[in-house]
Design brief:
TIM Barrel; alpha/beta
Length: 370
């Protein structure tokens, strides 16, 4: 495993990290095994948290805390909310410090709230003074200019952002600015929610000026594959590999939502298009795995009870689509939104029927994922 210096934090982080977005949906024993195997493979960067992922990571930290770099996130925009989340994270992880505490910052409005008096930055700076947080970060997945403005404050030590074969916009301005400020670079969505093959996506990304990447992992097999494709004598791509990367880019480019947060909105029928076609973790798992494997996976009991309701709600939203294609006319990337939604109208009912037949439904279970 290759290790890289995470900017001015001086932390040495594994090129491959583990993201918890998909792992959180698995049952606890499976999640614990994935974290432990990742550590055995040389992974030391762990990005969270979602659902009960902190509890799945905690057993590993009890044995190897000093060798692990733990990053966690919050949507809180106020100092008091951050203070509460820090305390909750410490308890869940079973540790007395968090290496990197990331503020989710999806818009300039959120950044303004973070920077306001008694905002999130005040809260995390106080936590750092108390020794509960070592470094401060920001996370964004749509408008990357928000991260640029965050870097310019001088407060931010680490950023996590999307970069992959298709989504390369961070290479133009964000990464050079981060390098100028010696800010750590952590990549989310390296395989674009499973739309890109790891065999091409991860080696390509390893050749970019980043420090670590955190693909979401939903099985030991995925983890082993991710690690294996980065075990190379040289990370440089051959001409044949460059050609394969370009072929993948061309195939997936027009199917990849950039989560622009507005260009395809508002849908006349109120459909959240980025979530529907790209950013829904549970649908991505179903699409990537197929029906049989999805039903056989070791899901977290809380998630399993919510699946049927979740997909039934999605189907209801899909039925509302009239095919007006206003979203497509506004999309800058030529995404065939309506065709994608029509395909979902076909692939959702078999799963809903199978989940109902298995009794995987409980209308009283509260949302737990985030």
């Amino acid at each position: 495993m290759e290790y890289r210096r995470l900017g001015r934090t001086e932390l040495q982080v594994s090129l491959l990290g583990v993201g918890a977005g998909y792992l959180a949906v698995l049952d606890r024993p499976t999640g614990e095994r994935i974290y432990r195997r990742a550590y055995e493979l040389g992974v030391n960067y762990f990005d969270g948290r979602y659902g009960d992922s902190n509890y799945k990571l905690a057993p590993l930290l009890r044995e190897h805390r000093d060798q692990c770099v733990v990053a966690t996130k919050t949507r809180e925009t106020g100092a008091s909310g951050v203070a509460r989340r820090v305390e909750e994270e410490l308890v869940e992880l079973g540790t007395d410090y968090i290496d990197i505490f990331l503020l989710r910052t999806y818009s300039h409005e959120m950044l303004a709230d973070h920077l306001a008096p008694n905002g999130a930055f005040d809260g995390v700076l106080k936590a750092r003074e108390q020794g509960k947080v070592r470094f401060i970060g920001m996370a964004a997945h749509g408008d990357l200019t928000v991260l640029e403005d965050g870097i310019r404050t001088g407060i931010v030590d680490v950023i996590i952002f999307p970069l992959n074969i298709v989504r390369r916009e961070a290479l133009d301005r964000l990464i050079p600015l981060a390098q100028e400020h010696d800010v750590g670079l952590v990549v989310m969505k390296p395989v674009s929610v499973g739309m890109l093959p790891a065999e091409q996506a991860l080696p390509w990304l390893a050749n970019q000026p980043i420090h670590t990447m955190v693909p979401g992992v939903s099985s030991l097999e995925e983890l082993e594959l991710d690690a294996r494709v980065l075990e190379r004598t040289t990370l440089a791509l051959s001409a044949q590999e460059e050609s394969q990367v370009e072929a993948v880019r061309q195939r997936v480019d027009a199917l990849t939502c950039r989560i622009c947060d507005g260009f395809c909105a508002p849908c006349p029928e109120g459909i959240d298009i980025p979530s529907m076609i790209y950013h829904d973790v549970w649908y991505n798992l179903y699409r990537n795995m197929g029906l049989e494997a999805f039903l056989a996976a070791p899901w977290h009991p809380g998630a399993r009870k919510l699946f049927e309701r979740h997909f039934r709600a999605r189907l209801g939203k899909l039925a509302a689509c009239t095919g007006c294609r206003e979203c497509e006319a506004r999309c800058s990337y030529g995404i065939p939104v309506v065709d994608m939604l029509e395909d979902m109208k076909v692939d959702h009912p078999p799963l809903i029927e199978a989940l109902a037949a298995l009794g995987w439904q409980d209308q009283e279970t509260p949302p737990w994922y985030f």
